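User: quick one
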Amino acid sequence: MLYREAGQFKASYEADQQIFPILQDRIGVMLLIGFFALAVPLFADQYWLKAILIPVLIFSLAAIGLNILTGYAGQLSLGSAAFMAVGAFGAYNFMLRIDGMPFLVAILLGGLCAALVGVMFGLPSLRIKGFYLAVATLAAQFFIVWALVKIEWFSNYSSSGVITAQQIEILGFAFEGPQSKYLLTLFVVVMMALAAKNMVRSTTGRSWMAVRDMDVAAEVIGIRLMRTKLTAFAVSSFYCGVAGALYAYTYIGTVEPEGFNLDLSFKILFMIIIGGVGSIMGSFLGAAFIVLLPIALDVFVPMLLGDLVSSSFVSNLQLIVFGGLIVFFLIVEPHGLARLWQIGKEKLRLWPFPH
Amino acid sequence: MQFFFEVLIGGLLSGVLYALVALGFVLIYKASGVFNFAQGAMVFFAALTFVGFLEVLPGWTGMEEGGRAVFWLAFVLSLAAMVVLAIATEKFVLRPLVNQPPITLFMATIGLTFLVEGIAQGIWGANVRGLDLGIADVPIEYMMDNFNILISSFDVFAAAVAAVLVAALALFFQYTRIGRALRAVADDHQAALSIGIPLRHIWVIVWAVAGFVALVAGMIWGARNGVQFALTFTALKALPVLILGGFTSVPGAIVGGLIIGASEKLAEVYVGPFVGGGIESWFPYILALGFLLVRPEGLFGEKHIDRV
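Assistant: Done. Structure below.
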């Protein structure tokens, strides 16, 4: 009843090509952003901001990065955490070594470092694909973490590569409390998500999808494979790098290379599988799901089962639930939560009528 | 020079263990086209189940602790557990995902990895356990006296087990009815189906055989380094082995394992000191990556041809 596009005529190409062609969608997104930008920082308590909202936003960004590579360009990567590490350490070094480095420029430069490294490790994708490529990205995962630990210059000669993020300051305003850090994260993530959404609708994004669906056919219709695959690697690593920089600066504060391990890479992969492969919206849903699930299990399992279970049981249960959900989603809904969202919207269009 | 040979042989012997894990991968990939990331978790599950039965069986049955009977009963029961795992995997993971792109199946096995790890630890607990197979871990005196090279008898035993296992599998594939059916399925699913080979049974069998290989690999690794979560990482080490050897070749898994094992130990000893050590963690991957660029199908793999 409320959600229906009847009567909304598109009279220009601009109107036809909007991100959200339906008025209700536009209003909804505005309300959503308004809610998260205004209401949440006012009313949410510190724990929610620090432990849930900020990580959800950061992981959403990383998931968008991986989704660009895996979901849109079809190149499976198991090294996203390593690219996050490059972004974090890159931003740290720019802040450290250049006097008066603006924070936002530093994280973008950190992302660019990650993009460069990503292109380097993306080069093999020109000759290999599928599982072989997944193994190649594992090389990136192990090599980058090793290099960040062993080459002490990166961490300014601290022991075992631990870095402590500097104070964030933009135009004289110091970002200290979780509120301001949350808003900063939200701003960066929303901007980059919009950019990503537009990118996947453009020539670049369409050529990624063509390569994903069948690379030989894409080549035949004149898409340059090398450029397409490498831009996918570059953009994806850039997103992961910025996410990594935010992870260090607005979330954890003190990070070590070992923190960006294979487990984190898998977590990001799970986010896009559960959220929806090849969907920007799905990256957000998946990240929220994966961040909230362990917390929910920690809270509810002891509550339901009482003292019967130990904490090790809960952590094992977490593994089982994660694994089970992955298999479940791959079988039942390969397009993830994003697809469920889509179905919900379709249903809403007809509601309250059956047809 | 003696030191070089010691490192080389040590590397080759650890390569045998990588090869054992890689063998499980190859079996499943050949028969079902699934790249089974969960092989490492299966090794962990198998070893943990075996050790767990060794601990609880004397209490249940009143058998003598550490005796021969307990050992074999635990072995048989663990094998049964692996068969159950194979059946469950086929029923709940593979069958619903038939005809999905290989990458989906791969991701499903990553999910399976977590599932199996969680179940294994949920049943048996997460603490590190020692495993004593009753094989002495002492230097062989003959080599010590004549060539002054230090080789552990346990490592030689592991190599012998691997050799026997490979030979047995080769014979099984070559000469039995089931083996022939397996090869037919590996060759062409549809053709195999159309001449009446039951695909599902074959899948269960092949996963069970991979489970058996995982059990043997897990017992040997576990006896060497303790039965612990780190066993699951053996799967990660087996990946470059596969790339080197080719996904579809049993001899490739063995040769690849030997090359990776030897080269990573040699690199650690001779190159490591110049770059700060610890290069074992990534050297096999970079080696495999370099190799991929020259020969994408691996040493013995089938050449991949794309058709539009």
